[in-house]
Every structure is written in C-alpha cells, then in structure tokens.
Amino acid sequence: MISDGLKKIIETFRKQGTMSFLEPATEEQISAFEKENGITFPEEYREWLSFSDGGELFLPAGVQFYGVAHKPLIDVNDDRRPDDSYVAVGGLCDGAPVLFKKGSRKFAVYYPEDGEIYDGFTYEDFYDFLDNLYDLLGMDGEDGGDDWDDDEDGDWDEDGEDDDDDKDER
Hints:
SMI1/KNR4-like, 16% strand
C-alpha cells in the first residue's frame, strides 16, 4: 500500500514534467532481491519500488531509478560508489549515482570524479531526497505551489520556494 505522503509526492511530480513510472515490484520480488544480495532497502525506497520498480523523473535532464525486477536492475556491486557500505539505486543525468547507505535510511549523491559525497548532497531518507530534487536538478521553485512536505520542516512551502538553505551548491 502506498502512503498518502508518497501519493502526494507522485501527484506533484506528475504535474511537473515527463515522468516514466514502471510496473510495481511485488513484496516477494523486493524481499527476494534483498535476500539474494544481502541488503535491506530503507522503508521509503521499498515503498517506492512497490509503486514503481525503477523509473525516470524530469526527463531528459533528471534522475533514473533502478529496479529489482525491471531493467535497469540495481547492481549492488556498482563500482560508481565510494565503498561497499553504499548501494547505487539510481543516477542523475550527469552520471552521478544516487546511493543509500546500508543499514540506514540515508541517501546521497556521489560524484566519482571528485571521489566524495558532498554534505549538501546527503539526505535523511528517500523522501528527503525527493523533497530536494528540484534544487538538486536546478529546478528551484518549479513545484507548482504544491506542498507535499507534511512534517513542517520548512522545505517546500505554498509559494513553491525552498525555505531550507542547508543544501549547499557543489
């Protein structure tokens, strides 16, 4: 079942640009992938996979997410990560992988050419990553005024402006 929070995020994204959502992965497919690869996805990413097993947001200059049953598949040994404690679950249009840290809910964008994850590109969880996707892609203020951020942390407000200044530019 998809949470109201994720439904709101998806609804907002659908209004904003070209999106490609895939068929959902089943709970059995997600669990089998985790078991076969010795990982546990963060709860929020599991929920995303049960909505869309991969997909692309803000084509052509956006982000692609990988799946567990639909190609491109998540490669837990992807060499575009800083070390074995991360799993690449997607990538930005510039090739920078979107990662989650094993054993946590944290997400990050890694810049292999620089060999580091910058502080401004780390996120508390997958929803925080999605919540900051407009800034990450240089689309500040293009959320159409929708406020999907129900926890009142001040990120996106009704006028579509990002009130969270802690995401530094690279």
